[in-house]
């Protein structure tokens, strides 16, 4: 309990500092940084409860799902080509980076592909543990560097490179108009969505379940839903960030440090490709550049949607692009990898 309390206080104070400087998703970033520092230099066995992380994901899922309306569905039907095209481009860039890493390091191709594919951290780590042909250390290190590199760099890029700004909001209470059905009535809806998604073995069930349940309720009942109070979203960010920070494994990073430059360069190339594709989406669909970039950024659906919420971007568009890529990654890539790398593959 002492470890968790220390991490929570440290993350909260750092989050206040980042909030003061108008940094997007300040409490998630502070959670990641605080937990990483404590785990690397103080308590190497530090863990964060999965339950607390899942509760944070459920709150985030409600905040994201409430942005969906019938008009949103009509608008998104016009983005079908862009959604699938952008997803294929993101996966294609990742495969090229993986092939380059394979050619210039000791890692085999299967491990490099699992390590660089965007949006599939949990799935790829699970597959690497189950497949003896893959080097789990390589997969974990590359996925960790990619995820943390994007989550930490994207908020700064959208502000300093793309000219975005953080929408002012209070720390403890909603600001401005917040009419609609109270968010408290949606707690059981989000909970049911999470349970159903878990039963169906949907990837990241604690997030995707509440998103779909809240969106379906909003569309079917044709009602507006209140924004979740900032205190709730800030606590959600803290728990998600602290859990992510505790995922870092110092020993694994040290064992595969020769791959570090390739993982960093690969992440930068993927981010650069995301900016190029975002520019194409802006020209073709006329959506704001910040929304387009967050929709393409390979940092994870939760992180990019929360960043979009903090900057007033269109979260429904960000979610659509991110979730299609996530589903493509988790439903098709494992099957393709197993077919391409048959039992005779040795790396």
Describe the 3D structure.
It is a single chain. The protein is mainly α. Helix content is 72%, strand content 0%. It contains 16 helices and no strands. Helix 5 crosses helix 16, helix 6 packs parallel to helix 8 and helix 14 (289-296) packs parallel to helix 16 (315-340). The longest helix has 26 residues, at 260-285. It starts with a helix and ends in a 7-residue tail after the last helix. The relative contact order is 0.19.
Keywords summarizing the entry:
347 residues; mainly alpha; 16 helices; 72% helix; 0% strand; globular
- What does the radius of gyration come to? 20 Å
CA(first)-CA(last) distance: 44 Å
Mean pLDDT: 78
Helix-strand sequence: HHHHHHHHHHHHHHHH
Helix content: over 70%
């Amino acid at each position: 309990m002492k470890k968790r309390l220390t991490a929570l206080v440290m993350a909260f104070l750092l989050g206040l500092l980042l909030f003061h400087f108008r940094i997007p998703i300040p409490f998630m970033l502070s959670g990641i940084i605080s937990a990483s520092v404590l785990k690397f230099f103080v308590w190497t066995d530090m863990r964060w409860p999965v339950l607390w992380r899942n509760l944070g994901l459920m709150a985030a899922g409600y905040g994201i799902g409430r942005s969906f309306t019938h008009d949103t569905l009509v608008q998104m039907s016009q983005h079908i080509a862009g959604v699938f095209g952008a997803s294929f481009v993101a996966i294609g860039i990742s495969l090229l980076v993986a092939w380059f890493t394979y050619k210039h390091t000791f890692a085999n191709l299967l491990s490099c592909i699992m390590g660089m594919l965007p949006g599939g951290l949990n799935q790829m780590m699970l597959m690497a543990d189950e497949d003896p042909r893959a080097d789990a250390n390589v997969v974990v290190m590359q996925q960790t560097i990619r995820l943390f590199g994007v989550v930490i760099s994207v908020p700064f890029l959208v502000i300093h490179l793309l000219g975005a700004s953080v929408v002012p909001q209070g720390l403890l209470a909603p600001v401005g108009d917040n009419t609609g059905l109270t968010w408290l009535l949606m707690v059981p809806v989000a909970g049911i969505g999470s349970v159903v998604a878990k039963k169906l073995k949907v990837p990241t069930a604690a997030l995707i379940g509440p998103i779909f349940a809240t969106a379906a309720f909003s569309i079917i009942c044709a009602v507006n839903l209140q924004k979740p109070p900032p205190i709730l979203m800030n606590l959600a960010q803290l728990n998600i960030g602290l859990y992510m920070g505790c995922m870092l494994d110092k020993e694994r990073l040290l064992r595969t440090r020769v791959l570090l430059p390739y993982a960093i360069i690969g992440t930068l190339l993927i981010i650069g490709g995301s900016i190029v594709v975002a520019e194409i989406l802006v020209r073709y669909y006329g959506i704001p550049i910040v929304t387009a970039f967050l929709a393409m950024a390979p940092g994870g659906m939760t992180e990019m949607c929360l960043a979009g919420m903090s900057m007033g971007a269109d979260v429904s568009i960000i979610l659509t692009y991110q979730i299609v890529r996530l589903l493509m990654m988790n439903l098709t890539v494992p099957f393709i990898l197993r077919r391409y790398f048959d039992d005779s593959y040795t790396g």
